[in-house]
Amino acid sequence: MHTDEITNWLKETDPARLDRLYARADSIRRQYVGDVVHFRGLIEVTNFCVRSCTYCGVRAENLALKRYRLSRAEIMDCAKRAAMLGYGTVVLQGGEDYGIAPAWFANIIRRIKQETNLAVTLSMGERNEWDLAEWREAGADRYLLRFETSDQELYHKIHPSVPGHPTRLALLRKLRQMGYEVGSGVMIGIPGQSYASLARDIALFRELDLDMIGVGPYIPHPATPLGNGSLALTLPPDEQVPATEDMSYKVIALARLACPDTNIPSTTALATINATNGRELGLQRGANVVMPNLTPVSCRPLYEIYPSKACVTEEPTDCSQCLRGRVQSIGRRPADGPGNRRKLDYRPQPQFAF
Ligand code: 5AD
Ligand code: FES
Questions:
Q1: Beta strands in 229-353 (DSSP E)
Q2: Which of 62, 146, 305 maximizes ligand 1 atoms within 8 Å of its Cβ, making it the mutation to test the pocket?
Q3: How far is residue 269 CA from its own chain's centroid?
Q4: 192-209 exposure pattern, b = at least 16 Cβ within 10 A, e = fewer
């Protein structure tokens, strides 16, 4: 695809040109996915994790972090709350935690599907294909697994690999074959991430024909090698992507141009770097999804993948009201129903030159 054009946009600094990019993304968003905003209630089910991603605060080596795993009753309470608040989807997210037994989790998925009308999205890391198949069988509708960067060298530096494990791209293909809607995405401004590689990430979103695309700025966590400087990945300043708010909007807008019919959230990481109106701006520059937090407030501070995360103290009803207000303030409305991707029969070639 047009990775040079995408790179040029990522490097663009002229405010008038950027306004044109954002206006184009907003109009494509309206044309293909409409003015509704889908609410996906996030339940952070466990912060145990066996992996060692060098950017992530819940990595196994972070011994200072108190670990929790929600009970079945707690997860069911959160899901019922989601239904009461009128959300269409719950997202069960967690670290890669083998204390989450596949059959136990399948039972919870089955109960949510029986007792509510919610779509169920999972985001539980690189589980093996038998677990993923069992959860799909139990009724899970979607799976999120970010590929984080398409630069394989950088990928391996920030994800200590497990011998014999399939790659995330291979797993994404498997998930699709199993009948999941598939979501992926990247962090923006990881040390060592070049403009050219971020442009290839965006081209890959389209090649993978993703149903959902989640992107957000990299936020350093002091309890990680990448965040405390013990792992230094440096590029010349003119090549390194900055982990800024503006860069995040550019990536959301370009993802919308590349993938017009995809569901794209305005993420918590964006709300974290601009609490005032980061989420609204994301929604006005290509996004059509928000992810209000449903995790019990007692556990929220412990799901610290990065510091100072938005919504750490707010009760689920607060996040619901807050987001409804924000959505309405920009002339949009909360959607009814689960908000599956309505896939185009024909995908026009994206235009990046304008
Ligand atoms: N900064 C920003 N995003 C992060 N994630 C993990 N750690 C960080 C961080 N320090 C993102 C990853 C992961 C998702 C659940 O959270 O992209 O896939
Ligand atoms: Fe949680 Fe605004 S979304 S307080």
A1: 289-290, 333-334
A2: 305
A3: 9
A4: bbbbbbbbbbbbbbbebe
Q: What is the mean pLDDT of the chain?
A: 96
| Residue 2 predicted with pLDDT over 80 | yes
Give percent of the chain with pLDDT exceeding 90: 91
Measured by CA distance, the residue closest to atom 7 of ligand 1 is 56
Q: Is the pLDDT of residue 1 over 70?
A: no
Q: How many helices, marked H, and strands, marked E, lie in the chain?
A: 13, 8
Q: Which atom of ligand 2 is nearest to 314's Cα?
A: 4
Check pocket membership of 56 for ligand 1, CB cut-off 6 A.
yes
Phi and psi angles of residue 137, each rounded to the nearest 5 degrees, phi first: -55, -40
Q: Give the pLDDT mean for 190-209.
A: 97
Closest CA to 154 of 110, 200, 222: 200
Q: Is 315 in the pocket of ligand 2 (CB under 6 A)?
A: no
Task: Give yes or no for a contact between 227 and 220, defined as CB atoms under 8 angstroms apart.
Answer: yes
pLDDT at 161: 79
**CA 268 to centroid of ligand 2, rounded, Å:** 9
